[in-house]
Fold Condensin complex subunit 1 C-terminal domain-containing protein.
Amino acid sequence: MSNEGVLVGDELQKISVMKNLPLLIKEDLTACIQRIIPRMQQTLPHGTTEYNMGACDAVRAVARQNLMSTDNFTKVFLQHILNSLESRDTVAADEWLNVLLDIVKVLPTNVLHTEVLPIAVNKAHISKPVPVRVTSCRILGHLALLFSPMHVKRDIIPVVISLCQDVSGEVRAAMSKELPNLASTLGLETSNYLLNHLLDLVSDEEVMVREAAVEAVADMLPRFPPDVLKTTILPLTKKVFPEIMKKEDGLLLVLAKFYGQYAIGLKNVMTVIEKGQFLQRYIQMSQLNTNTRRNKVNPYNSIVMDEDELALRLTDCRLNCAYNFPAMVVFSLDLKQDLVDTLFSIMRNLASDSFCQVRRKIAAGFYEVMKLMPKWHVALKGEFIKLLKDEIDIVLEGLVPNVANILLGLSGSNTFTSDKVESGKDVGQALFVCEKNLSDALHWRLHEELLVGFRVVPKVFHPEFVYLYFVPLLLS
């Protein structure tokens, strides 16, 4: 046999042992600690990516299944995990980082302070390569969730501030993503320590940093006191959001994705006029497509995109708007009727969008919207019928799980009743169309779910209608 064949066979054998490590530990912990694990750790630095990935899975399994005491796990694995973060194999190093982030929650606090924190602080030094400093950001973010507020303020925030001001945009973006974790521990003290740095990041020169910061602010809104929301965050949105919409860069998708969080988080500090302006911006985003643009070239953005790329970006924007529609309904409950009516027209447009995933998002939130807006029930019946008749099963995947609840809701609000044969006939016919489409598509799980939803039919349709149309369908 050739040397190459021996090497391949040896590697496969090592990977096999690695995958079975949790089982071996269950059978004989002492033997594993004394013989198998040291051998594994000796060969890993020179092992293949696959070998390292197998080791990562094994260590995770040991931690999740509590196959060792915390002390034993720390002594046996922690130092090796920390050393593996320096692996030249970047794929392996990244996976070992994920292992560390998975297992920190099971490590004793004193170990986190004495073993893990110093590593994170060391990796944050400006002399370290950018990927290493990014690693530091991720570790610090996870440690912040496990440390007391006092320790976060004393041991973590000084390093975080340094990373927020790092010369690399990649590092600043990575640190921005972890700031909500610090805010989770600091609570209402967040603004005292992080607010100014967060504002700088939102205005950063690099798009990737601004994207991460806009997302971070959305996640941190519950951690800010009302006065900070009103005097700092709300003015920030008035300045930044219109600029984002003008440029139509990657930030547009982030804004559309988190717009609902901003709406709910800032609702109580807005005036009626400010709410109206905020809603109008959402309406504008939800209508973006290549046909709504007057010029092929955006005068506010120097980067020229081809039509397909632009169409995809604007479609994703509408998709995020569809996801946030229920939140915007909550936001708009106390606004003037004409604005609320405009919001319904947006729902109608999104439910007819050319992109099926947009229609699916609206379908998935349909029942939630129905609960929020009883006044819309008559109009919602038409949209319900339209979605039921959609020929794309992806759209029906969003609607079918709530069909029974929607039927009960419409019936309960007297949109149609069970005391007249003709009442609800159009809904019944749409249900039959939906059933046929799913049957023809051989989507049996969703088809079954729809048929199970038909259990409420006797409660919402006239008995004669049920007997003439639903019973033959179910018997067939």
